[in-house]
Amino acid sequence: MRYRVADLDETFQPVQPGVRWFDLAPVHVWRFALRGELAAWPWWSDRLTTGEIEAVQRYRRPEDQERALISRGARRHLIAEVCACAPEDVDLGVGLHGKPSCQSPRAGRTDLEFNVSHSGAWVLVAISMRGAVGVDIEQHRPVEEERLVADCFSPEEAMAWRALPPKDRTAGFYATWTRKEAYLKGLGVGLGKALDRFSVTVDPSPMAHVVVHDDDDPTATDRWAFWPLPIDGNHSASLVVAGRPSSVCRWEWPGHESPVEA
Question: Is this model's pTM higher than 0.85 or not?
Fold first, then answer.
């Protein structure tokens, strides 16, 4: 299976050899392309635990195995680079509501948080050295947008979405959806918080000033920063970070150590 990519955004850049990418900004997002094959299996599987390999192999379709393989391998590889340790020494755990966390890599960075999302042709890995982080990507698919807006958006979001020109509603739907999912992932609450209990900006423009208004946290607007993640014409993605970092770096894989060149 080959994934369809259109209007690829070029703002994600490869890391040059010898560059300590994790020193260049407090927050980073890596983009990994899925090719619908398992050519790089040996390279990635060397970075996984036995339990992770078994979890990957439980998927029946090659494209699902590839997605699981890269999702797990990428986070271990990147965290190991940040912590200057071997991938197998990265101690990954799971929080109260299922959010993956970095417990205690041997080289010891206690301020590191990460989040992973995948959909369609891409895997995204977000890494923050300054606090909680959430990332979400969604492939554009035919869905009942009106029903989902009515069921999952707040009244304010639904009103703003219906006020968009019809040609912008699909982009507005996915922009809002990924912002909401990224925020929930940043909070680490999973499905424990209702989607209509908070509102985000609906404007799909990459230049939009995105804010969140949370019924359960009046300080959320000031505590969380949203960053646009243009991917391509078939996917939407959003990043949310606690603490309002000054910059975010966006990196493209393959990197200089990549097993498969694009």
Answer: yes
